[in-house]
């Protein structure tokens, strides 16, 4: 793992300013995916903007009868929230069907959306991987690939997005609210994640510096 500096942000706009003022920076929420990738030397941020103190953990009701899920609410708190269980049992049950209790207790909703799309070969630095190193090739196309994608793939990548929660959010037609250098915007969930195409290294449609603040 490489050396890095760290800033503890206390507000979303402060976090955005901090991240965009450092080259090679990344947001750090629960860290269940990012820290893992850093240990494998797959991600090498030189600066981390910690989101742990941001007030984005609430789950609240909306006037239209929906719910707003704070980006920093943990997967466990979301799954066991009484209103989520009552109004969106699909989401609750899907979260509980994935990962382990230890991960769900730490992983955040925003982090769940932004975890890397990946397969075995992404982690194996000895094999070509267009997602890890664009232009080197896709080992999964010719090697064992039982857990890889069948639909929505390309000649560059057949990895799958590992989030169970995201499948439920797509089915529920959720909307992602983000904040970035140019202010706030919303992204329909169907438009949030990218198909690999010829740029498999890009997992989603976030613009540089944008931060997920909630999911409606």
Largest sheet: 5 strands, antiparallel
Spatial extent as radius of gyration: 17 Å
Structural class based on helices, strands and sheet pairing: alpha/beta
What share of residues is helical? 25-40%
Strand order of the largest sheet: 4-5-8-6-7
CATH topology of the domain at 56-117 and 161-215: Uridine Diphospho-n-acetylenolpyruvylglucosamine Reductase, domain 3
Averaging pLDDT over every residue, what do you get? 97
Count of DSSP E strands?
8
Instruction: State the CATH class of the domain at 56-117 and 161-215.
Output: Alpha Beta
Range of strand content: 15-25%
Number of helices: 9
- Topology order in helix (H) and strand (E) letters: EHEHEEEHHHHHHHEEE
Which of globular, elongated, flat, extended, rod-shaped describes the shape? globular
Unreliable stretches (pLDDT < 50, length at least 5) are none
CATH-derived architecture of the domain at 56-117 and 161-215: 2-Layer Sandwich
């Amino acid at each position: 793992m490489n050396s890095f500096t760290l800033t503890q942000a206390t507000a979303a706009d402060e976090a955005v300013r901090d991240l965009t003022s450092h080259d090679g920076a990344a947001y750090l929420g629960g860290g269940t995916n990012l820290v893992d990738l850093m240990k494998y030397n797959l991600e090498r941020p030189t600066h981390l903007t910690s989101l742990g103190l941001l007030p984005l953990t609430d789950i609240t009701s909306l006037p239209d009868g929906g719910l707003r899920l704070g980006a920093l609410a943990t997967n466990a708190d979301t799954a066991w929230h009484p209103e989520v269980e009552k109004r969106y049992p699909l989401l609750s049950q899907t979260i509980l069907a994935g990962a382990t209790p230890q991960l769900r207790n730490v992983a955040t909703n925003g982090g769940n959306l932004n975890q890397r799309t990946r397969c075995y070969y992404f982690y194996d630095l000895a094999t070509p991987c267009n997602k890890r190193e664009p232009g080197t090739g896709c080992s999964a196309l010719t090697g064992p690939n039982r857990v890889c994608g069948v639909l929505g793939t390309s000649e560059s990548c057949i990895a799958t997005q590992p989030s169970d929660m995201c499948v439920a959010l797509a089915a529920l037609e959720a909307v992602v609210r983000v904040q970035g250098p140019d202010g706030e915007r919303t992204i329909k969930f169907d438009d949030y994640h990218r198909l690999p195409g010829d740029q498999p290294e890009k997992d989603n449609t976030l613009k540089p510096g944008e931060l997920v603040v909630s999911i409606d």
